[in-house]
Amino acid sequence: MTEEEEKGGESTLTVLLAGGVNLAIAILKLVAGIITGSGAMLSEAAHSVADTITEALLLTALKRSERPADRVHPFGYGKERYFWSLLAAVSIFASGAMFALYEGFTTVFGENSDQDNPLVGYIVLAVAFVLESRSWLQAIRQVRTEAKAESRSFFGYLRMIDDPAPKTVLFEDSAALVGLVLAFAGIGLHQLTGSSVWDGLASILIGLLLACVAYLLGRTNRGLLIGRQADPRLVRGVRDHLAAAPEIEALVDLQTMLMGTDQVLVCARVDFDDALGAADVERACVRIAAELAEGFHDVTEVFIEPVPRTDPNLRATVLARYGDLRANPVEDYQ
Fold this sequence. Notes:
- By secondary structure, the chain is mainly alpha-helical.
- It has two domains: about 5-225, Alpha-lytic protease prodomain-like (Up-down Bundle), CATH 1.20.1510.10; about 230-334, Alpha-Beta Plaits, CATH 3.30.70.1350.
- It is built from ten helices and three strands; from the N terminus they run H-H-H-H-H-H-H-H-E-E-H-E-H.
- The chain has helices at about 5-35, 40-65, 80-110, 120-150, 155-160, 165-195, 195-225, 230-245, 280-295, 310-320; strands at about 250-260, 265-270, 300-305.
- A three-stranded mixed beta sheet has the order 1-2-3.
- Helix 9 links the parallel strand 2 and strand 3 (about 300-305).
């Protein structure tokens, strides 16, 4: 099994586990919310429903992004993972945050309501916390394992990750655990004070929490959909490999873009030795592309364009994109 297949299987396991847990918890919270009349509990039920929808969207992302390239999409369907993950972030906001905020404001500014059977709420929240913790630990384990494999810190890997599935599950499960604590506090303070305002405030805080998670995930997937540069370490490795090629006198420009999880497009403009003939340049391009694909497993497409380093229009284009490149045309935009 390849490294990509292992990562894909781990992501699928993480998403399936989270989806099953969230569906079970959503049903428990809904029943408890109806029995207790707690707005915070109903907000948490909506939270779990949103998370369940999110897992379904992530599974769609994982499956559809694995389709091979075809005539219509010659670079493959890797970015479908980012599209469906972006919809998952929208789902968290639309079906989770908005309902929680509505329920919270309705409770705070409405008439004071009595609380029934708070013990049921406490039991359901405790069970939900245990189940959510299992899903959260699986997401933590996956991120830690992958971060260690790439010799990165936990948070450093999260910033550079190109697979939104484990990050989405980790964020939503973390929010779920915090939301459960907020709901527990809301129900407890309602029971102690007799005021449903505390229950409403808990719902509002849950809604704000979900809105923040939705924003963070949406921003991540937005950047990936637009076309983010590859990992700077990979860019530096590709740059060094190109600079070391005996046929290349200068690396004029290097562009990379994530085309999907573990899929990187490399476009290089290089100044070849003027003594080389056309056939020599062609053979060098084929060899260098093969070396890059073999040396960097994420590199799936390589385009090498021979250009003169002194061309003023090309230099102006590179300067406009990266700024002052007096030192190195690649290092300055890391």
